[in-house]
Amino acid sequence: MATVVVSETMGEDPVRHQYRSSDRAELFDFLRESLSTDDSERLIKQWSWRYEASPFNPAEGPTIDIIRIGTKLVALVAGFRVRMSMGGIECFGESRGVWLVHPKHRGHHLWRRVGTLHSPDTPILFGWSRVPGRAAVEDQWVVERITPLLRVLDLRSLIEQFTNSRWLSAIGGGVSAAARLAGELPGHARGDRSHPVVRLSSFDDRVDAIFDRARRAHLAMVVRDHRYLNWRYCQRPDATYMLFGVECGSELSGFLVARACERQGVPWGYIVDFLAPATSGEVLSSLVGQALDEFRVIGVAAVVCFATDPVVRHTLFRHGFFPFPQRRPMHFNRSILAGRNDLAKFAVLRNWYVTMGDGDLEMAP
Question: SS in 3 state form for the chain?
Answer without folding.
Answer: CCCCCCCCCCCCCEEEEECCHHHHHHHHHHHHHHCCHHHHHHHHHHHHHHHHCCCCCCCCCCCEEEEEECCEEEEEEEEEEEEEEECCEEEEEEEEEEEEECHHHCCCCHHHHHCCCCCCCCCEEEEEECCCCHHHCCCCEEEEEECCEEEECCHHHHHHHHHCCHHHHHHHHHHHHHHHHHCCCCCCCCCCCCCCEEEECCCCCHHHHHHHHHCCCCCEEECCCHHHHHHHHHCCCCCCCEEEEEEECCEEEEEEEEEEEEECCEEEEEEEEEECCCCCHHHHHHHHHHHHHHHHHCCCCEEEECECCHHHHHHHHHCCCEECCCCCCEEEEEEECCCCHHHHHHHCHHHECCECCCCCHHHCC
